[in-house]
Every structure is written in C-alpha cells, then in structure tokens.
Amino acid sequence: MPNLLALANPTRFMQLSGVLLPWLWALALVALGFGLWLAVFSVPADYQQGETVRIMYIHVPAAWLALFLYTLMALSALGTLIWRHPLADVSQKAAAPIGAAFTLVCLLTGAFWGKPMWGTYWVWDARLTSVLVLLLIYLGLLALWRSIDDPSRAGRAVAIMTLVGFINVPIIKFSVDWWNTLHQPASVFRLQGPSIHPSMLWPLLLVAVGFTLLALALHMLAMRAEIMRRRIRTLEILEAARLDAVGLTPSGASA
Amino acid sequence: MNMLPNLGPHAAFILLSYGAAVLVIGGLVLSVMADHRQQKRKLAELEARGITRRSDAGSRS
Asked: From B42, which residue of chain A is nearest by alpha-carbon distance?
C-alpha cells in the first residue's frame, strides 16, 4: 500500500509514465497490427453472417472499452470523493474523451453491422439505447467539466455525476438478458464459456488487448497533459499574485 | 493489384466500419498528442521565464 501511494504522487507519476509510455505504445501497435491483420486477412467468414463478421473485431473491443473506461472513471470518482487524491480527478478527466470515442466507434460500427444483418441501422431496443445513453453521459460529463473553472470543484461535481451514471453500466451488460432485443446475447464472457470458435476468438482477444493497451497509453498521456495544465494554472496564479504584491499587473504596467 | 480479400456483397459496410474506427480513434490519438505537446511547451516557456513554484517561495522569503 505505501508503494501504491508513492506511485500516486503526481511527480512520481510523471517519472514513471515517461518510462512506461514508449513500451505501451509499442505493445499496442504490435498487438493491434497483428490482431487486425488476422481479422481482415486470416479469420474465416461466419457461416451465417458471412464477411460482415469482420466488423466484430472493431465493434466488440470498442464496446468493452466503452464500459471499461467508464468503470475506471467511477473508481477514480471514488478516489476523488473519499480520499480527495489529486491524481483521481486527473484520471477521471483524462478517461472521459477516450471513453466517449470508443463508445462512438461502438455505435457507428454497430449501425454499419446492423444494416446488412438486421435490415436497419438503428432500433430503440435496450442494448442500443443504453449504449447511446452512455455516450450522452460521457458528453455531459465533458460539458460539466468545461462549465466549472476551478479543477478541484469541477472534479468533485463530475465525480458525483459519474457515480450516478454508473448505474447504466450493469444495465448495458445485462440488457440482452433482461429484455427482448435484436442484439445477440454475450458470446465471450459467459458462465458456460465462450461460444465463439477459437479461430475467431483468439484474433478478437488480441485486438481487444491491443485496443486496451492503446487506451491505457492514451489515458496516461492525457493524464500527463492534465497534470501539466494544472501546474501551468498554479504557476500563472502564483505569478499574478507575486506581481500584484510588488504593485505590477501581469502586463508589466504599474497598478 | 487488389490488396484486400473479397469482402462479399456487404464490403461497403465493412470498409465504412474500419474507416470510422480509424477516423475516430486516429483523431483521438492526434488530439491527445497535440494537447500534451501544447502543455509541455507552455510549461517550458513559464519555466524559461523563471516562473516556478520554488522561485515564488524564494521571492516570499
């Protein structure tokens, strides 16, 4: 636990992330490159869905990451509200646009897969609608952040809203079991084991690992940018206060 | 020479899906990198002007 707390220091985080980031980028590139090559050129067509099953290798990892990043935001929100840790709301703020982007990819690829398979781009069923709600929650949280100037006040307000919105995560996961829906039920994370043939499952898991590493690298880079943004803000406030104390305005004119 | 395999009658939907993913995730990667570069440059500019938390503490003492 003391080691974890040491890692959670912003200066220590900057040092450690500087070392880890090149490795994360490289591993993400290798996993995504190989996984997507398999997905496009090597895996067999599905006996029912034909070649359109290749959309699965983008759609499913994007859906998993949309939920994973929101869960990461909810855990960070607990860190903000309970421990008031300075890195917790930095983590939350950094994760939001990444989660929104993966949710958008999930919705777009789902629509492009739905048209040839279901005959429609969109239906207002439980799975599709709850994922659309997830995208709206992400966008709402980003808007809330921009509407409050003080980062720590914004962080607390967003943390409360993030935890309220977390109720949508189990709704998305179990929507295909609780309601009648066009969307197929879970086929990888099931109590009975995956129902996908290994020739399709392994490339899917490889792409998912690649996207997860990419998301973690982006999250780390966005956290570094946010830490620097807060340092800049602090320095500008300190400089303005120092100039004010010696009777100067920041532009150099006499007060 | 065609580099892609035969994607069947629904090739357009498959290509649209991969294209949308490249656009959205590529745009995200570029925007996060640009933001990181911008903050790094701003912080370096402030520090080059001698504005640091340490210099502030020193100016008060």
From this structure: A232
Which residue is it, tokens 């890195």?
A87
**Within 10 A of A29 (CB to CB), how many other CB atoms are there?**
14
Asked whether the ipTM of the predicted complex exceeds the cut of 0.95, the reply is no
Q: Tell me the per-residue pLDDT of A141-181, one tens digit each, with 9 for 90 and over.
A: 999 999 988 888 888 999 999 999 999 999 998 888 888 77
CA A72: distance to chain centroid?
Answer: 8
Of the residues A32, A49, A104, the best mutation for testing chain B's interface (the one with the most B CB atoms within 10 Å of its CB) is A104
Quote the DSSP letter at residue B2.
-
Instruction: Tell me the pTM.
Output: 0.88
Full 3-state SS string of A92-105: HHHHHHHHHHHHHH
Amino acid at A165: G
CB A99 within 8 A of CB A70: yes
CA gap A69, A134 in Å, rounded: 11
